Protein backbone atom coordinates (compact mmCIF):
# COMPACT_ATOMS: atom_id res chain seq x y z
CA UNK A 1 0.00 0.00 0.00
CA UNK A 2 2.83 2.37 0.90
CA UNK A 3 4.59 1.50 -2.35
CA UNK A 4 1.45 2.42 -4.30
CA UNK A 5 1.23 5.75 -2.49
CA UNK A 6 4.88 6.47 -3.19
CA UNK A 7 4.44 5.62 -6.85
CA UNK A 8 1.40 7.87 -7.03
CA UNK A 9 3.28 10.67 -5.31
CA UNK A 10 6.11 10.48 -7.83
CA UNK A 11 3.89 10.52 -10.92
CA UNK A 12 2.46 13.43 -12.95
CA UNK A 13 -0.36 15.39 -11.34
CA UNK A 14 -3.22 17.18 -13.15
CA UNK A 15 -2.09 20.75 -12.46
CA UNK A 16 -2.27 22.34 -15.92
CA UNK A 17 -5.24 24.57 -16.75
CA UNK A 18 -6.80 24.62 -20.21
CA UNK A 19 -5.20 27.98 -20.92
CA UNK A 20 -1.78 26.51 -19.99
CA UNK A 21 -2.28 23.66 -22.46
CA UNK A 22 -3.39 26.02 -25.25
CA UNK A 23 -0.42 28.32 -24.56
CA UNK A 24 1.98 25.35 -24.83
CA UNK A 25 0.47 24.08 -28.11
CA UNK A 26 0.23 27.49 -29.79
CA UNK A 27 3.74 28.27 -28.60
CA UNK A 28 5.12 25.11 -30.19
CA UNK A 29 3.40 25.59 -33.55
CA UNK A 30 3.63 29.35 -34.14
CA UNK A 31 7.38 29.59 -34.36
CA UNK A 32 9.94 31.13 -36.66
CA UNK A 33 8.80 28.97 -39.58
CA UNK A 34 6.02 31.42 -40.47
CA UNK A 35 8.75 33.94 -41.40
CA UNK A 36 10.45 31.52 -43.82
CA UNK A 37 7.92 29.20 -45.47
CA UNK A 38 5.49 31.80 -46.96
CA UNK A 39 7.96 32.65 -49.72
CA UNK A 40 8.30 28.95 -50.60
CA UNK A 41 4.52 28.55 -50.64
CA UNK A 42 4.14 31.66 -52.81
CA UNK A 43 6.66 30.30 -55.31
CA UNK A 44 4.59 27.13 -55.67
CA UNK A 45 1.14 28.72 -55.93
CA UNK A 46 1.59 31.80 -58.11
CA UNK A 47 -1.68 33.60 -57.26
CA UNK A 48 -2.80 35.20 -54.03
CA UNK A 49 -6.11 33.30 -54.07
CA UNK A 50 -4.39 29.92 -54.27
CA UNK A 51 -1.74 31.06 -51.79
CA UNK A 52 -4.29 31.85 -49.07
CA UNK A 53 -6.34 28.76 -49.95
CA UNK A 54 -3.48 26.35 -49.22
CA UNK A 55 -2.95 27.96 -45.82
CA UNK A 56 -6.64 27.54 -45.08
CA UNK A 57 -6.41 23.93 -46.31
CA UNK A 58 -3.43 23.39 -44.02
CA UNK A 59 -5.55 24.48 -41.07
CA UNK A 60 -8.32 22.10 -42.16
CA UNK A 61 -5.96 19.11 -42.49
CA UNK A 62 -4.47 19.96 -39.08
CA UNK A 63 -7.97 20.13 -37.59
CA UNK A 64 -8.76 16.67 -39.02
CA UNK A 65 -5.58 15.34 -37.44
CA UNK A 66 -6.45 17.05 -34.16
CA UNK A 67 -9.83 15.31 -34.10
CA UNK A 68 -8.07 11.96 -34.49
CA UNK A 69 -5.74 12.86 -31.64
CA UNK A 70 -8.68 13.99 -29.53
CA UNK A 71 -10.10 10.46 -29.59
CA UNK A 72 -6.75 8.95 -28.62
CA UNK A 73 -5.96 11.45 -25.84
CA UNK A 74 -9.41 11.25 -24.24
CA UNK A 75 -9.56 7.45 -24.44
CA UNK A 76 -5.96 6.77 -23.40
CA UNK A 77 -4.77 9.83 -21.40
CA UNK A 78 -1.13 9.39 -20.48
CA UNK A 79 2.02 11.47 -20.05
CA UNK A 80 3.66 9.27 -22.70
CA UNK A 81 1.36 10.68 -25.41
CA UNK A 82 2.14 9.15 -28.82
CA UNK A 83 4.40 6.61 -27.13
CA UNK A 84 1.47 5.31 -25.05
CA UNK A 85 -0.90 5.15 -28.06
CA UNK A 86 1.63 3.17 -30.09
CA UNK A 87 2.24 0.80 -27.20
CA UNK A 88 -1.48 0.11 -26.86
CA UNK A 89 -1.81 -0.50 -30.60
CA UNK A 90 1.42 -2.24 -31.63
CA UNK A 91 3.12 -3.41 -28.42
CA UNK A 92 6.12 -2.44 -26.34
CA UNK A 93 8.82 -3.02 -28.93
CA UNK A 94 7.34 -0.64 -31.48
CA UNK A 95 6.66 1.89 -28.72
CA UNK A 96 10.27 1.57 -27.65
CA UNK A 97 11.42 2.27 -31.20
CA UNK A 98 9.31 5.44 -31.22
CA UNK A 99 10.71 6.56 -27.86
CA UNK A 100 14.23 5.92 -29.18
CA UNK A 101 13.48 7.93 -32.32
CA UNK A 102 11.95 10.78 -30.36
CA UNK A 103 14.87 10.96 -27.94
CA UNK A 104 17.60 10.67 -30.58
CA UNK A 105 16.02 12.22 -33.72
CA UNK A 106 12.55 13.79 -33.61
CA UNK A 107 12.34 15.91 -30.49
CA UNK A 108 16.00 16.58 -29.91
CA UNK A 109 16.46 17.37 -33.61
CA UNK A 110 13.52 19.80 -33.44
CA UNK A 111 15.03 21.49 -30.38
CA UNK A 112 18.36 21.81 -32.19
CA UNK A 113 16.91 23.25 -35.43
CA UNK A 114 14.78 25.79 -33.53
CA UNK A 115 17.82 26.77 -31.47
CA UNK A 116 19.77 27.25 -34.72
CA UNK A 117 17.14 29.74 -35.93
CA UNK A 118 17.88 31.78 -32.81
CA UNK A 119 21.60 31.35 -33.37
CA UNK A 120 21.43 32.47 -37.00
CA UNK A 121 19.44 35.64 -36.23
CA UNK A 122 21.39 36.49 -33.06
CA UNK A 123 24.65 36.19 -34.98
CA UNK A 124 23.39 38.89 -37.36
CA UNK A 125 23.04 41.25 -34.40
CA UNK A 126 26.28 40.25 -32.64
CA UNK A 127 28.66 37.60 -33.90
CA UNK A 128 30.60 35.37 -31.53
CA UNK A 129 32.97 34.08 -34.19
CA UNK A 130 33.03 31.30 -36.76
CA UNK A 131 30.73 29.06 -34.72
CA UNK A 132 28.51 31.87 -33.47
CA UNK A 133 25.13 30.25 -34.45
CA UNK A 134 26.08 27.00 -32.71
CA UNK A 135 27.24 28.83 -29.56
CA UNK A 136 23.98 30.81 -29.31
CA UNK A 137 21.96 27.63 -30.00
CA UNK A 138 23.79 25.69 -27.28
CA UNK A 139 23.26 28.49 -24.74
CA UNK A 140 19.52 28.57 -25.51
CA UNK A 141 19.13 24.80 -25.02
CA UNK A 142 21.14 24.83 -21.79
CA UNK A 143 19.27 27.77 -20.24
CA UNK A 144 15.76 26.60 -21.19
CA UNK A 145 16.49 23.05 -20.01
CA UNK A 146 17.42 24.51 -16.61
CA UNK A 147 14.22 26.60 -16.66
CA UNK A 148 12.14 23.44 -17.08
CA UNK A 149 14.14 21.57 -14.43
CA UNK A 150 13.17 24.30 -11.96
CA UNK A 151 9.57 23.06 -12.33
CA UNK A 152 6.40 22.95 -14.37
CA UNK A 153 4.94 26.15 -12.92
CA UNK A 154 8.09 28.14 -13.64
CA UNK A 155 8.40 26.57 -17.11
CA UNK A 156 4.81 27.37 -18.10
CA UNK A 157 5.17 30.84 -16.56
CA UNK A 158 8.18 31.55 -18.78
CA UNK A 159 6.22 30.16 -21.72
CA UNK A 160 3.36 32.62 -21.10
CA UNK A 161 5.78 35.55 -20.96
CA UNK A 162 7.53 34.47 -24.18
CA UNK A 163 4.22 33.87 -25.94
CA UNK A 164 2.89 37.26 -24.85
CA UNK A 165 5.98 39.00 -26.28
CA UNK A 166 5.69 36.90 -29.44
CA UNK A 167 2.02 37.81 -29.92
CA UNK A 168 2.81 41.50 -29.49
CA UNK A 169 5.43 41.12 -32.21
CA UNK A 170 3.07 39.22 -34.51
CA UNK A 171 0.44 41.91 -33.98
CA UNK A 172 3.05 44.50 -34.89
CA UNK A 173 3.74 42.69 -38.18
CA UNK A 174 0.02 42.52 -39.01
CA UNK A 175 -0.60 46.20 -38.14
CA UNK A 176 2.49 47.27 -40.09
CA UNK A 177 1.46 45.21 -43.10
CA UNK A 178 -2.06 46.63 -43.25
CA UNK A 179 -1.71 50.20 -42.00
CA UNK A 180 1.82 51.39 -42.87
CA UNK A 181 2.42 52.54 -46.43
CA UNK A 182 5.36 50.76 -48.04
CA UNK A 183 8.19 52.84 -49.41
CA UNK A 184 8.07 52.99 -53.19
CA UNK A 185 11.86 53.27 -53.30
CA UNK A 186 12.33 50.15 -51.18
CA UNK A 187 9.79 48.13 -53.15
CA UNK A 188 11.53 48.88 -56.43
CA UNK A 189 14.78 47.46 -55.05
CA UNK A 190 13.13 44.19 -53.98
CA UNK A 191 13.47 41.33 -56.46
CA UNK A 192 10.50 39.94 -58.37
CA UNK A 193 10.13 36.65 -60.18
CA UNK A 194 9.36 36.53 -63.81
CA UNK A 195 7.79 34.22 -66.30
CA UNK A 196 8.25 30.59 -65.32
CA UNK A 197 9.93 31.27 -61.99
CA UNK A 198 6.67 30.57 -60.16
CA UNK A 199 4.86 27.30 -60.69
CA UNK A 200 1.57 25.87 -59.57
CA UNK A 201 2.62 22.92 -57.42
CA UNK A 202 -0.02 22.72 -54.72
CA UNK A 203 1.30 19.42 -53.39
CA UNK A 204 4.76 20.84 -52.70
CA UNK A 205 3.22 24.01 -51.28
CA UNK A 206 1.23 21.86 -48.83
CA UNK A 207 4.45 20.21 -47.66
CA UNK A 208 5.73 23.59 -46.48
CA UNK A 209 2.35 24.64 -45.07
CA UNK A 210 1.88 21.47 -43.01
CA UNK A 211 5.46 21.65 -41.76
CA UNK A 212 4.64 25.16 -40.50
CA UNK A 213 1.51 23.79 -38.79
CA UNK A 214 3.49 20.94 -37.20
CA UNK A 215 3.61 20.52 -33.43
CA UNK A 216 -0.03 20.49 -32.29
CA UNK A 217 0.26 16.73 -31.62
CA UNK A 218 2.35 17.56 -28.56
CA UNK A 219 -0.98 17.88 -26.74
CA UNK A 220 -0.87 14.11 -26.22
CA UNK A 221 2.02 14.48 -23.80
CA UNK A 222 0.17 16.73 -21.40
CA UNK A 223 -3.24 14.96 -21.47
CA UNK A 224 -2.66 13.36 -18.06
CA UNK A 225 -1.60 16.69 -16.51
CA UNK A 226 -4.72 18.65 -17.50
CA UNK A 227 -6.60 19.84 -14.44
CA UNK A 228 -9.98 19.80 -16.22
CA UNK A 229 -9.52 16.15 -17.21
CA UNK A 230 -8.50 14.48 -20.45
CA UNK A 231 -11.96 15.00 -21.96
CA UNK A 232 -11.16 18.70 -22.29
CA UNK A 233 -8.30 17.87 -24.67
CA UNK A 234 -10.85 18.07 -27.50
CA UNK A 235 -11.42 21.74 -26.67
CA UNK A 236 -7.68 22.37 -26.25
CA UNK A 237 -6.84 20.87 -29.65
CA UNK A 238 -9.66 22.49 -31.60
CA UNK A 239 -9.15 25.92 -30.03
CA UNK A 240 -5.39 25.74 -30.60
CA UNK A 241 -5.77 24.87 -34.31
CA UNK A 242 -8.34 27.65 -34.85
CA UNK A 243 -6.09 30.23 -33.16
CA UNK A 244 -3.05 29.08 -35.15
CA UNK A 245 -4.94 29.14 -38.47
CA UNK A 246 -6.24 32.66 -37.80
CA UNK A 247 -2.72 33.89 -36.95
CA UNK A 248 -1.23 32.39 -40.10
CA UNK A 249 -3.93 33.82 -42.37
CA UNK A 250 -3.52 37.31 -40.88
CA UNK A 251 0.28 37.28 -41.17
CA UNK A 252 0.23 35.99 -44.75
CA UNK A 253 -2.42 38.52 -45.73
CA UNK A 254 -0.12 41.26 -44.36
CA UNK A 255 2.79 39.91 -46.40
CA UNK A 256 0.61 39.90 -49.52
CA UNK A 257 -0.66 43.41 -48.91
CA UNK A 258 2.83 44.91 -48.83
CA UNK A 259 4.91 42.66 -51.10
CA UNK A 260 2.47 40.98 -53.45
CA UNK A 261 2.76 37.36 -54.57
CA UNK A 262 5.74 37.86 -56.90
CA UNK A 263 7.97 39.66 -54.42
CA UNK A 264 7.02 37.11 -51.76
CA UNK A 265 8.03 34.27 -54.09
CA UNK A 266 11.42 35.90 -54.71
CA UNK A 267 12.07 36.76 -51.06
CA UNK A 268 14.43 34.83 -48.80
CA UNK A 269 13.04 36.55 -45.69
CA UNK A 270 9.53 37.91 -46.17
CA UNK A 271 9.36 39.34 -42.68
CA UNK A 272 12.55 41.32 -43.18
CA UNK A 273 11.39 42.60 -46.58
CA UNK A 274 8.01 43.65 -45.17
CA UNK A 275 9.53 45.56 -42.26
CA UNK A 276 12.25 47.14 -44.42
CA UNK A 277 9.61 48.37 -46.90
CA UNK A 278 7.43 49.89 -44.16
CA UNK A 279 9.75 50.90 -41.29
CA UNK A 280 13.25 50.89 -42.74
CA UNK A 281 16.27 49.38 -40.98
CA UNK A 282 14.64 49.87 -37.56
CA UNK A 283 11.95 47.45 -38.69
CA UNK A 284 14.63 44.94 -39.72
CA UNK A 285 16.01 44.90 -36.17
CA UNK A 286 12.49 44.53 -34.75
CA UNK A 287 11.70 41.54 -36.98
CA UNK A 288 15.00 39.93 -36.02
CA UNK A 289 14.07 40.19 -32.33
CA UNK A 290 10.59 38.83 -33.10
CA UNK A 291 11.94 35.77 -34.89
CA UNK A 292 14.24 35.05 -31.95
CA UNK A 293 11.32 35.35 -29.51
CA UNK A 294 9.14 33.07 -31.66
CA UNK A 295 11.85 30.43 -31.79
CA UNK A 296 12.49 30.74 -28.02
CA UNK A 297 8.80 30.10 -27.38
CA UNK A 298 8.86 26.96 -29.53
CA UNK A 299 12.11 25.66 -28.02
CA UNK A 300 10.80 26.05 -24.48
CA UNK A 301 7.54 24.26 -25.25
CA UNK A 302 9.33 21.49 -27.17
CA UNK A 303 11.72 20.88 -24.26
CA UNK A 304 8.74 20.74 -21.88
CA UNK A 305 6.81 18.10 -23.85
CA UNK A 306 9.81 16.15 -25.16
CA UNK A 307 11.03 15.09 -21.74
CA UNK A 308 7.65 13.44 -21.08
CA UNK A 309 8.40 10.72 -23.65
CA UNK A 310 11.79 10.02 -22.10
CA UNK A 311 10.06 9.74 -18.73
CA UNK A 312 7.58 7.20 -20.15
CA UNK A 313 10.47 5.23 -21.69
CA UNK A 314 12.25 4.98 -18.33
CA UNK A 315 9.01 4.08 -16.56
CA UNK A 316 8.35 1.10 -18.84
CA UNK A 317 11.86 -0.28 -19.60
CA UNK A 318 14.36 -1.19 -16.88
CA UNK A 319 17.29 -0.51 -19.19
CA UNK A 320 16.38 3.20 -19.03
CA UNK A 321 14.93 3.24 -15.50
CA UNK A 322 16.81 6.38 -14.49
CA UNK A 323 14.74 8.39 -16.99
CA UNK A 324 11.50 7.28 -15.34
CA UNK A 325 12.01 9.21 -12.12
CA UNK A 326 9.52 12.01 -11.53
CA UNK A 327 10.36 14.80 -9.09
CA UNK A 328 7.08 15.39 -7.26
CA UNK A 329 8.30 18.57 -5.58
CA UNK A 330 8.77 20.45 -8.87
CA UNK A 331 6.50 18.18 -10.96
CA UNK A 332 9.12 17.49 -13.63
CA UNK A 333 11.13 14.50 -14.96
CA UNK A 334 14.56 15.93 -14.14
CA UNK A 335 16.71 13.07 -15.47
CA UNK A 336 14.71 12.94 -18.70
CA UNK A 337 15.21 16.69 -19.18
CA UNK A 338 18.96 16.42 -18.63
CA UNK A 339 19.41 13.53 -21.08
CA UNK A 340 17.28 15.33 -23.68
CA UNK A 341 19.38 18.47 -23.28
CA UNK A 342 22.66 16.58 -23.67
CA UNK A 343 21.49 14.88 -26.90
CA UNK A 344 20.21 18.20 -28.32
CA UNK A 345 23.59 19.79 -27.54
CA UNK A 346 25.35 16.91 -29.33
CA UNK A 347 23.16 17.47 -32.41
CA UNK A 348 23.96 21.19 -32.32
CA UNK A 349 27.63 20.22 -32.36
CA UNK A 350 26.99 17.96 -35.34
CA UNK A 351 25.21 20.80 -37.12
CA UNK A 352 28.18 23.10 -36.45
CA UNK A 353 30.44 20.68 -38.33
CA UNK A 354 28.18 20.81 -41.41
CA UNK A 355 28.19 24.63 -41.47
CA UNK A 356 24.44 24.56 -42.21
CA UNK A 357 22.91 23.57 -38.90
CA UNK A 358 19.27 24.42 -39.56
CA UNK A 359 18.98 22.63 -42.92
CA UNK A 360 20.86 19.61 -41.59
CA UNK A 361 18.44 19.25 -38.68
CA UNK A 362 15.39 19.58 -40.97
CA UNK A 363 16.72 16.80 -43.21
CA UNK A 364 17.62 14.72 -40.17
CA UNK A 365 14.20 14.81 -38.49
CA UNK A 366 11.54 14.97 -41.25
CA UNK A 367 11.28 11.35 -42.55
CA UNK A 368 11.31 9.79 -39.06
CA UNK A 369 8.72 12.27 -37.80
CA UNK A 370 6.25 11.61 -40.62
CA UNK A 371 6.73 7.82 -40.40
CA UNK A 372 5.59 7.77 -36.78
CA UNK A 373 2.89 10.36 -37.42
CA UNK A 374 1.45 7.94 -39.98
CA UNK A 375 1.73 5.12 -37.42
CA UNK A 376 -0.35 7.21 -34.98
CA UNK A 377 -3.09 7.56 -37.58
CA UNK A 378 -3.07 3.81 -38.21
CA UNK A 379 -3.20 3.15 -34.44
CA UNK A 380 -6.65 4.75 -34.32
CA UNK A 381 -7.98 2.00 -36.60
CA UNK A 382 -6.09 -0.71 -34.70
CA UNK A 383 -7.37 0.41 -31.28
CA UNK A 384 -10.96 0.67 -32.52
CA UNK A 385 -10.72 -3.02 -33.45
CA UNK A 386 -8.42 -4.19 -30.66
CA UNK A 387 -10.19 -2.43 -27.76
CA UNK A 388 -13.76 -1.77 -28.88
CA UNK A 389 -15.29 -1.89 -25.40
CA UNK A 390 -13.18 0.84 -23.78
CA UNK A 391 -15.31 3.96 -23.15
CA UNK A 392 -14.50 6.69 -25.64
CA UNK A 393 -15.50 10.13 -24.30
CA UNK A 394 -14.94 11.50 -27.79
CA UNK A 395 -15.11 9.70 -31.14
CA UNK A 396 -13.67 11.19 -34.31
CA UNK A 397 -16.58 12.25 -36.56
CA UNK A 398 -17.17 10.65 -39.97
CA UNK A 399 -15.06 7.59 -39.13
CA UNK A 400 -13.30 6.01 -41.07
CA UNK A 401 -13.03 8.81 -43.66
CA UNK A 402 -11.56 11.42 -41.29
CA UNK A 403 -8.59 9.30 -40.12
CA UNK A 404 -8.07 8.06 -43.70
CA UNK A 405 -7.52 11.67 -44.83
CA UNK A 406 -5.09 12.13 -41.97
CA UNK A 407 -3.14 8.97 -42.89
CA UNK A 408 -3.08 10.00 -46.56
CA UNK A 409 -1.59 13.39 -45.67
CA UNK A 410 1.08 11.76 -43.51
CA UNK A 411 1.95 9.25 -46.25
CA UNK A 412 2.45 12.04 -48.78
CA UNK A 413 4.66 14.03 -46.42
CA UNK A 414 6.72 10.94 -45.60
CA UNK A 415 7.30 10.42 -49.33
CA UNK A 416 8.14 14.10 -49.83
CA UNK A 417 10.55 14.23 -46.88
CA UNK A 418 12.51 11.30 -48.34
CA UNK A 419 12.41 12.71 -51.87
CA UNK A 420 13.24 16.39 -51.35
CA UNK A 421 15.73 16.28 -48.46
CA UNK A 422 19.46 15.56 -48.55
CA UNK A 423 21.77 13.01 -46.99
CA UNK A 424 20.67 14.14 -43.52
CA UNK A 425 17.43 12.22 -44.06
CA UNK A 426 19.38 8.99 -44.53
CA UNK A 427 21.34 9.69 -41.34
CA UNK A 428 18.07 10.11 -39.43
CA UNK A 429 16.74 6.82 -40.81
CA UNK A 430 20.04 5.11 -39.91
CA UNK A 431 19.76 6.32 -36.30
CA UNK A 432 16.19 4.98 -36.20
CA UNK A 433 17.37 1.57 -37.43
CA UNK A 434 20.14 1.61 -34.81
CA UNK A 435 17.41 1.59 -32.20
CA UNK A 436 16.32 -1.88 -33.33
CA UNK A 437 19.57 -3.28 -31.85
CA UNK A 438 18.15 -2.54 -28.40
CA UNK A 439 15.31 -4.98 -29.10
CA UNK A 440 17.59 -7.75 -27.90
CA UNK A 441 17.98 -6.05 -24.51
CA UNK A 442 14.42 -4.82 -23.96
CA UNK A 443 12.32 -6.77 -21.48
From TrEMBL:
**Which superkingdom heads the taxonomic lineage of this protein's source?**
Bacteria
Query: A Pfam family in this protein?
Result: AA_permease_2
Q: What is the lineage of its organism?
A: Bacteria, Pseudomonadati, Bacteroidota, Sphingobacteriia, Sphingobacteriales
Q: Name one GO cellular component term.
A: membrane
Q: What InterPro entries does the annotation carry?
A: AA/rel_permease1, AminoAcid_Transporter
Mostly located where? membrane
Q: Any transmembrane segments, and where?
A: 21-38, 50-73, 94-118, 130-149, 161-180, 200-222, 234-255, 284-307, 328-352, 364-384, 396-415, 421-442
UniProt-listed Gene3D superfamilies: Amino acid/polyamine transporter I (1.20.1740.10)
Where in the cell does this protein reside? Membrane
**Tell me, what is one Gene Ontology molecular-function annotation carried by this entry?**
L-amino acid transmembrane transporter activity
Q: Is-annotated flag, keyword Cell wall biogenesis/degradation?
A: no
Membrane topology (UniProt): Multi-pass membrane protein
List the protein's name. Amino acid transporter
**What are the protein's UniProt keywords?**
Membrane, Transmembrane, Transmembrane helix
Amino acid sequence: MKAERAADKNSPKPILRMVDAIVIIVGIVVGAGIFRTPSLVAANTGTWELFLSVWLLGGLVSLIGALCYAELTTTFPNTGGDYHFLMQAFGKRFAFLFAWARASVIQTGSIALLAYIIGDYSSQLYSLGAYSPAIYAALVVAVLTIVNIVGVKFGTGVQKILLAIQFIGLLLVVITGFFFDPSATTLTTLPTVGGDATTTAVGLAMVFVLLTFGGWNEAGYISAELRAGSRKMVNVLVMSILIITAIYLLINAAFLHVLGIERMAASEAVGVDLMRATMGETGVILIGVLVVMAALTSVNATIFTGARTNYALGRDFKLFASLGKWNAKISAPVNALIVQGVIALALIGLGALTRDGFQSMVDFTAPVFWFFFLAIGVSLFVLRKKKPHIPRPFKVPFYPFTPLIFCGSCSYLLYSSLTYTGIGALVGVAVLLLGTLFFFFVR
